Amino acid sequence: MSLWTSLEPASSTVDPGGSTKVRLRLRNTGDVVDEYRFEPVGDIAPWTTVEPGTLRLYPGTTGTVELTFAPPRTSDAVAGPNAYAVRITPTEHPEATTVPEGNLTITPFTEVRAELVPPTVKGRFRGRPRLAVDNLGNTKLTASISGSDNGDHLSYDIHPGSVQIEPGRAAFVRATLKPRQIIWFGSKEQRPYSLAVQRSGVKSQSVEGTYVQRGFLPRWLATFLGVFMALAITFVMLWLAYKPQVRSAATEKLQEAGVSTLPPSPSASLPLPQPSIPAQAPTQEAPAPTPTEKPAGGGSGSDGGSEKKKKETKAPEVTAATAVTRLAADDPGVRHICYRAYETGEGWQKPVCDGAMAGTVGQSRPIKSLNLAVSGTKGVNGNEFVHVKEWLNPWTSVADGVDLYLGSTKADDPYMLAFGVNVGEGTICQNAHIHDQAWLGLQCNKPPSYIFGGTMDQTLWLEAVKFTV
């Protein structure tokens, strides 16, 4: 070897967002003039610069170059020791390449961003917001989640109560807000609340939200019922007060004429005339009803007769769960995922499985709903991001072989822009095609993190998807 090198110092430390320098000394121990080219290699090479990039040395002379390390203040600059190297290539003898190595320690930093999705929820008995926690630092984040409000009007059910998030990742926390008192009648009331992200040794970070509690019955209905009950009571009272009196007009006329209405005394001398009883006319029984004659030919009467009409049975709908169950039976022991898309103006497509395309490309048919089912992954869960209304529902989880539906097939409901899915065990991959754009590329993830596919741009929509597990 005709080259001697030395890093000064061999190990150094740098803060993310800052910079540090290391000197590289080298001596030409050969017998010819040579020019050396320098190239940083390794994981931190994108953040490393070498000045100068080339150095020409005479035999027996020594030169120096400076290595400058400037890692960004992002989650990409993972905290801890990081090995680095510089490839030195002689121009005269390129086969005699030298790669001196050193160590650079990146100091840790923490940065957390939390956001409520949506910031305002409405409901009569409960509200279900979600808290998105992003770890923007370069170390693993461990934090607990709690809820509070002024006046103690709400109770909180938070799942999970604590999270561990890798650098550059995010986690969603589901919260259920329940009012301690139900508003039976009256207008809605706003209940401000906050969800706090608490890390050990650090002041908690709170995210403000609003729960709009609606009344069980609207105020106008309470007013209507009150007026109706008052009118009903008034009617009953008037009816009882002015009940008509029924009297005999014949009795009043006899009293005016001075005739006694008392019956005659039995001691009268004259015998009382006996009324004559007319002969009773013989009664005539009604003729017995004749039985209804059956129509000729043995046909059924008005009730349908003894013969039953055959009913046509409609074939069951083939869903993603139907397809994945059949596929798992034909190919047991292997993980599968089947899915289908509901296209605007076309309806449900037939299910496809394991990487096939669901939906259409270039035909301007937005996907309104997705139907997924898995086998061998311990279930699947997901949520959808729709036009204008953003995330539509809370996360929904189903077991293996059960249909999971994202989005809505109602005519007036918005179409889908994106989705987030995850499986209970293993890896799930997705590829999405957006209107007027190309396929976004295959992306995979493992639990507990979810995989996101689609777009947040409200001017676009989801056209086609592919899934594998």
TrEMBL record:
Disordered: annotated span: 257-317
GO molecular function, one term: hydrolase activity
Transmembrane segments: 220-242
Biased composition (Low complexity): 267-295
Keyword annotations of the record: Hydrolase, Membrane, Transmembrane, Transmembrane helix
Keyword Transmembrane helix (UniProt): yes
Domain of life: Bacteria
Composition bias type Basic and acidic residues, residue spans: 305-315
Keyword Lipid biosynthesis part of the UniProt annotation: no
InterPro entries hit by this protein: ChW (IPR006637)
Name this polypeptide is given: Hydrolase
Organism listed in the record: Streptomyces fagopyri
